[in-house]
């Protein structure tokens, strides 16, 4: 995967602190890629609680099935991730691989295999050789350390052009806690979940059901608000681990007011990672933010925003730096949601190009075009029907997307 | 629009007969394009009955609004079409243009403006100057003739690379009737309706409500089974006109058994045109037929087939001649329809690549690849759940699609 780094990559990478109770190592197992790491083993101290959100695909991967079962108990001791092969649509062999790698990791960490969480990303339908992963575990287990996070993020990349990390701090009671997250994209990105793997770690002490509430809420306006191509992966996995090592009081009530700052920090980390996924959409040259307001509901605004964000004609117009608001009208119209053509207003950046169902009489093509030449495109649509509002994130559709996906497997 | 003719264009164009009661002329009004025709006027003899199907967009164009209203009376005396400007999202100006052009055409044909049907295709959101169309009407009205159909098809093209015509014959009672149809694509192609304009003419005598039944049924497996990019136009219009000039008995009961051959002929013409639309999808290099069988219902099969046909990852894999059935699994999974991963089987052409939820052990990569190198790709998916079956038509997603749509407006 020798694609140039996305021009939309963040200019700086945050300082990523250690998370007490979390140690990890990466390894090069040669699953598909040569000359790079492709396995990440994260060991978690005893007492770690876990929450997860997974793909809505009806054909989920074997690791997704595995994680869903393990999640019921709410406890985790490790997460083992590989890139290069998704272990999806691999039948009985795929299940055997999952069981073998969980057993292997359990042996090194010293826990029940059911406390091992697994994720795989890469090609679908090719058997994943458990042996390659098992072979690197002894050495990886001997090298566990509390950093650097950027290496963890690199090991899980597929067609990603840059590693994705984010961090935030919060207080619970009087105690500082930290959150560190990593994510990978970069194709098959569509909501429920946005296709990706992401793992967020904190030293807060939060009961698994509360953690699940927080995570399920956090994805709505972050990972589920991102689309690259409308294609939902078989393997989307977002896991949140809380080691409890901060010494902060354990929270076991979702209504506990001491969760406020943590909730905000978690929302910030997931939004940051989700936006990075859109910024690294395959072939992306422009980051696109679509805001719909005045819809009859939040859900209706989301469906319209997604209709716009997923429209190939809108996305190619953005790639061509064309302030083509006619295609926005088309995408609003096809969403099937309440919309009154004659109340519609549309902005590119700060320029209102359409109002009351027709071209804005004061519309400056020059101003709109200037906005389209930037690399952060903001499209705003006002429906004038109600209070529903939503923002989604995507990228443009370029020839590079076609090139990347026309020769990905071979 | 100087795009090379699609390599998927039909090798031969059928002999298109005259349709008694139908005369037409084309003109170059310079609406947007230079050096080509962009207006089509079709005059219909008195007594012509009409049926129509239109876009489901919530933001339809002014001509679509106009046609929907006129359709209620079931009578038509002319259809006036322009390419280069869709007269969509043009507010009060758009309505005025519709009224002015209908009045103008009515004056030349000698009928009520409500018996004039209108269609416009091209850029959205730019005012359409009625004067340019009115200026060419006198000359066009003086040149009305019963052929050649290929010129009618050319005048309505936008980014189409070849004109689309189809014809069929049938008997009603003992009398021969003829059907001639034209269509244009080639972007914003998605079902309900597949984005396009299409006009079908026959000399049969069929009551408007019966005609509507026939047309509504015909689109299900033809125009509504086609997708290029999942983007539904504001302007989709399919009109069926029956002049009654054949002398065949007039049919006013949809259950009349004498309709059998006509129904089959209409289905054949609409399917032929719809497939040509997919063959001329913007940037298309491969025609793709997606068949889903064993679904729980026809509707479920359709949704899964459309999920596959609209998937950018499937379409780019086809462009790359990659037998990437993992992406088929993904697209089946994301459709949200009942599917059992472990019963799924997938074929490319005659090669079964996956069975029982995993790679077919006898799978020949060479055979599958050979099929992918052709220009007619057949993808078959068996779900093993029920009797539901459907076929949809699409094309691959190429760099040329991005190029065409990145600089369409400017």
Task: Put the structure in a nutshell.
Chains A, B: Catalyzes two activities which are involved in the cyclic version of arginine biosynthesis: the synthesis of N-acetylglutamate from glutamate and acetyl-CoA as the acetyl donor, and of ornithine by transacetylation between N(2)-acetylornithine and glutamate. 2 copies of one chain form a homodimer. Chain A has helices at residues 62-71, 91-109, 130-142, 149-155, 208-220, 260-279, 298-309, 312-319, 325-334, 365-372, 399-406, and strands spanning 22-27, 39-44, 49-54, 78-85, 116-123, 164-172, 175-184, 197-202, 237-242, 287-295, 345-348, 351-355, 358-359, 376-382, 388-395.
Secondary-structure class of chain A:
alpha+beta
CATH-scheme architecture of the largest domain in chain A: 4-Layer Sandwich
- Average pLDDT rating of chain A: 91
The CATH C-level name of the largest domain in chain A is: Alpha Beta
Describe this structure in words.
Chains A, B: Keywords: Acyltransferase, Amino-acid biosynthesis, Arginine biosynthesis, Autocatalytic cleavage, Cytoplasm, Multifunctional enzyme, Transferase. Chains A, B: The record marks 194-195 as: Cleavage. Chains A, B: It catalyses: L-glutamate + acetyl-CoA = N-acetyl-L-glutamate + CoA + H(+); N(2)-acetyl-L-ornithine + L-glutamate = N-acetyl-L-glutamate + L-ornithine. Chains A, B: Substrate binds at residues 158, 184, 195, 282, 405, 410. The structure is a homodimer of 410-residue chains. Helix content of chain A is 31%, strand content 24%. Chain A has 11 helices and 15 strands. Chain A has helices at residues 62-71, 91-109, 130-142, 149-155, 208-220, 260-279, 298-309, 312-319, 325-334, 365-372, 399-406, and strands at residues 22-27, 39-44, 49-54, 78-85, 116-123, 164-172, 175-184, 197-202, 237-242, 287-295, 345-348, 351-355, 358-359, 376-382, 388-395. A 6-stranded mixed sheet of chain A has the order 13-12-11-14-10-15. In chain A, strands 3-9-8-7-6 form a 5-stranded mixed sheet, sandwiched between helices. In chain A, helix 2 (91-109) runs parallel beside helix 3, helix 5 (208-220) crosses helix 6 (260-279) and helix 7 crosses helix 9 (325-334). Chain A is globular and about 70 Å long. Chains A and B meet through helix 2, helix 8, helix 9, strand 13 and helix 11 of A and helix 2, helix 8, helix 9, strand 13 and helix 11 of B.
């Amino acid at each position: 995967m020798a694609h140039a780094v996305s021009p939309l990559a963040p200019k700086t990478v945050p300082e990523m602190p250690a998370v007490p109770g979390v140690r990890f190592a990466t390894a090069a197992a040669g699953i598909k890629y040569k000359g790079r790491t492709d396995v990440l083993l994260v060991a978690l101290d005893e007492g770690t609680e876990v929450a997860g959100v997974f793909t809505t695909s009806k054909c989920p991967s074997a690791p997704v099935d595995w994680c869903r079962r393990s999640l019921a108990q709410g406890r985790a001791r490790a997460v083992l991730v590989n890139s290069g092969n998704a272990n999806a649509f691999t039948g009985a062999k795929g299940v055997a691989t999952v069981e073998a790698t969980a057993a292997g990791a359990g042996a090194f960490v010293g826990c029940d295999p059911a406390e091992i969480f697994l994720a795989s990303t890469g090609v679908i339908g090719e058997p994943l050789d458990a042996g390659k992963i098992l072979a690197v575990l002894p050495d990886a287990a001997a090298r566990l350390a509390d950093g650097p996070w950027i290496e963890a993020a690199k090991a899980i990349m597929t067609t990603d052009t840059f590693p994705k990390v984010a961090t935030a701090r919060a207080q619970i009671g009087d105690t500082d806690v930290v959150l560190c997250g990593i994510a990978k994209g970069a194709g098959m990105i569509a909501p429920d979940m946005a296709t990706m793997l992401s793992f967020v770690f904190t030293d807060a002490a939060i009961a698994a059901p509360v953690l699940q509430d927080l995570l399920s809420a956090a994805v709505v306006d972050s990972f589920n608000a991102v689309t690259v191509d409308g294609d939902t992966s078989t393997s989307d996995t977002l896991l949140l681990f809380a080691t409890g090592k901060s010494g902060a009081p354990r929270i076991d009530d979702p209504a506990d007011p001491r969760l406020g700052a943590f909730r905000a920090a978690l929302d910030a980390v997931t939004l940051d990672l989700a936006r990075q996924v859109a910024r690294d959409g395959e072939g992306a040259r422009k980051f696109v933010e679509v805001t719909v307001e005045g819809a009859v509901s939040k859900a209706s605004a989301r469906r319209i925003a997604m209709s716009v964000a997923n429209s190939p004609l809108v996305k190619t117009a953005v790639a061509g730096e064309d302030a083509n608001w006619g295609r926005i009208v088309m995408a609003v119209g096809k969403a099937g949601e309440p919309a009154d053509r004659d109340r519609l207003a549309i902005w590119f950046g700060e320029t209102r190009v359409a109002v009351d169902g027709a071209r804005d009489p004061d519309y400056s093509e020059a101003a709109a075009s200037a906005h389209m030449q930037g690399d952060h495109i903001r499209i705003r649509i006002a429906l004038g029907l109600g209070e529903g509002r939503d923002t989604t994130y995507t990228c443009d559709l370029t020839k590079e997307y076609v090139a990347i996906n026309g020769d990905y497997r071979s």
